[in-house]
Amino acid sequence: MGKISHKGVVETVDADTVKVRITQGSACAACKVANHCSAAESKEKTVEVVCDDAARYAVGDEVVVSMPMGNGSRAVLLAFILPFLVLLAVLLLTLWVSGDEALSALLALASLVPYYAILYLSEKKIARTFSFVIEQSTNIN
């Protein structure tokens, strides 16, 4: 499985966290999920990397951060495909039970509120799944 990698510069270092400023490279243009990737939204992004050896990095170090390519597909699944399936299921079920199109449409839209609330409440677990790792550093002291 491939990796999504970005070169960056360490901005801050805490006890177990390194914040890295990455610049969108030309490889993002060829990536299938570039439009949905938080690292590809703008020219410069800051990503947070949780690591046990954060103290070995210093502000200004050039590093390469990466995450598995499959995380892009997982992000699209959670953000777009699953909510669409929830919306469609609630719409069809409510339409079949009540026959009222307006009620079905409102309930289908309302069903997205709990979906995104659960997603929001699961933010820490999801963040662990979609976390960057530092692959290499060129300026380690």
Percent range of helical residues = 40-55%
What's the overall average pLDDT, rounded?
81
Low confidence ranges = none
- Radius of gyration, in Å, reads 20 Å
Percent strand equals 25-35%
Number-wise, the strands total 5
The structural class is alpha+beta
What characterizes the major β-sheet? 5 strands, antiparallel
End-to-end Cα distance, whole Å, is 31 Å
Helix count? 5
Give the neighbour order of strands across the main sheet: 3-2-1-4-5
Order of helices and strands: EEHEEHHHHE
Tell the overall outline.
Answer: elongated
In short:
With 141 residues, this protein is an alpha+beta fold. The protein has helices at residues 27-30, 70-98, 101-110, 112-121, 123-129; strands spanning 3-13, 17-23, 44-50, 62-68, 133-137. The protein contains 5 helices and 5 strands, in the order E-E-H-E-E-H-H-H-H-E.
Structure description:
This protein is of the alpha+beta class. The chain contains 5 helices and 5 strands. The protein has helices at 27-30, 70-98, 101-110, 112-121, 123-129, and strands at residues 3-13, 17-23, 44-50, 62-68, 133-137. A 5-stranded antiparallel beta sheet has the order 3-2-1-4-5. β1 (3-13) and β2 (17-23) form a beta hairpin.
Q: How does the SSE layout of this entry go?
A:
Blueprint: E1 3-13, E2 17-23, H1 27-30, E3 44-50, E4 62-68, H2 70-98, H3 101-110, H4 112-121, H5 123-129, E5 133-137
Antiparallel strand pairs: 1-2, 1-4, 2-3, 4-5
Descriptive labels:
141 residues; alpha+beta; 5-stranded antiparallel beta sheet; 43% helix
